[in-house]
Amino acid sequence: MQLRRRSLLLAAAATPVAAAVPAHAAEKTPDSRGPLVIGHRGAAGWRPEHTAAAYTYGAQTGADWIEPDLVPTQDGVLVVRHENEISQTTDVASHSEFAARRTTKTVDGNQVTGWFTEDFTLAELKTLRAVERLPLVRNRNTVFDGRYQVLTFQEVVDLARKLSRTHGRTIAVFPETKHPTYFRSIGLELEPKLASAVRRNRLGPRECVIQSFEPTSLQRMTGLGVPLWQALGTTGGPYDLVSSGDPTTYADMMTPAGLAGIARYADWIGPDKSSVAGTSLLADAHAAGLRVGPYTFRSENQFLPADLRRVGGADDFGDAFAEYALYYRLGVDAVVTDFPDLAVIARRGL
């Protein structure tokens, strides 16, 4: 009874405006068959993430959507980085003029040391260059280090539209609000800036789907006319709820009652792929009227189930096609992948 009460409280906090957006609006694949392929941070398996090269390669090889993670600059511009701490994804540490900005902050309850986007203007960030985040895993991508600027969200929207024209199909943007409670606490709210960008660019439901791990961030963007996607973790609960004393966990949100609550404000859920196989989550979500797009599909042995790993090292490729086939057979509506080209090839086998 207490679990149901928590889930219903979460549902009651939501507004139903987003339910007016057709859940299928951004779901048509080029051949109208099979699940959507979402290029995680572009095509992070082949190019440094969140770069023009990663997004372009993802679209060229068949991604239906491309995913930019959003964080703000000091002067309030949305830029695309996986985290606001940028020492792992840019060459900021080699810029002596920014050495004094290295600091330690508490973000979502965790102490983090490094350089943070909110301490830089856009002009300053534009002097940095992107680097591969996992150089020991994806050494092949380090050849591109230093070649690409940090992009703004507007630049990603413009690029997606250019790529759509080039390839003769709509390539949607799939922005995620990162650490929205934290940014709200320091006066750099993400949601108004994202909502403004959606309206300014007249992004419709086939061009944009907004995601977040924090339900209150999504609930602030109902009524925009684009689908909303509730991302789900594997442990604990969303930081916005945890920090407010709400005991609702991700596990609670993945129960039938929790899914019914999510369906009041969102069209999709994005669980970790491990939460889907061997569980009733997919069927329960579909019964609640939600689409399901598990994350994150990667090809290296270390990211694959043990029975799909091949002889070689942890960073060598295993049987990624077998993993896609498994989830496609289960009936997922999308896959979020670092290797959209491989997911598209696997989809052709349906």
Features:
350 residues; alpha/beta; TIM Barrel
Estimate what percentage of residues fall within beta strands. 5-15%
CATH architecture: Alpha-Beta Barrel
Q: Structural class, from helix and strand content?
A: alpha/beta
Counted up, domains total 1
Radius of gyration: 19 Å
Distance between the termini: 42 Å
Low-confidence stretches: 1-25, 28-32
Overall 3D geometry? globular
Order of helices and strands: HEHEEEEEHHEEHHEHEHHHEHEHEH
- Biggest sheet, spatial arrangement of strands: 7-2-1-13
CATH fold topology: TIM Barrel
Report the sheet with the most strands, covering strand number, pairing sense and barrel closure: 4 strands, parallel
Structure report:
- The chain has 350 residues and is α/β, with parallel strands linked by helices.
- It has a single domain (2-83, 139-348), classed as Phosphatidylinositol (PI) phosphodiesterase (TIM Barrel, Alpha-Beta Barrel), CATH 3.20.20.190.
- 29% of the residues lie in helices and 12% in strands.
- Strands 7-2-1-13 form a 4-stranded parallel sheet. A 4-stranded parallel sheet has the order 9-10-11-12.
- The termini are far apart.
Short note summarizing the structure:
The chain has 350 residues and is of the alpha/beta class.
Write the layout of secondary structure elements.
Layout lengths: L1 H11 L23 E4 L12 H9 L4 E2 L2 E4 L5 E3 L22 E5 L2 E5 L7 H4 L27 H15 L4 E2 L2 E2 L2 H6 L5 H10 L9 E3 L2 H5 L8 E4 L7 H5 L6 H4 L2 H7 L5 E3 L10 H7 L3 E2 L27 H11 L3 E4 L2 H9 L2
Parallel strand pairs: 1-2, 1-13, 2-7, 3-8, 9-10, 10-11, 11-12
Antiparallel strand pairs: 3-4, 5-6
Helix pairs in contact: 1-10, 2-4, 12-13
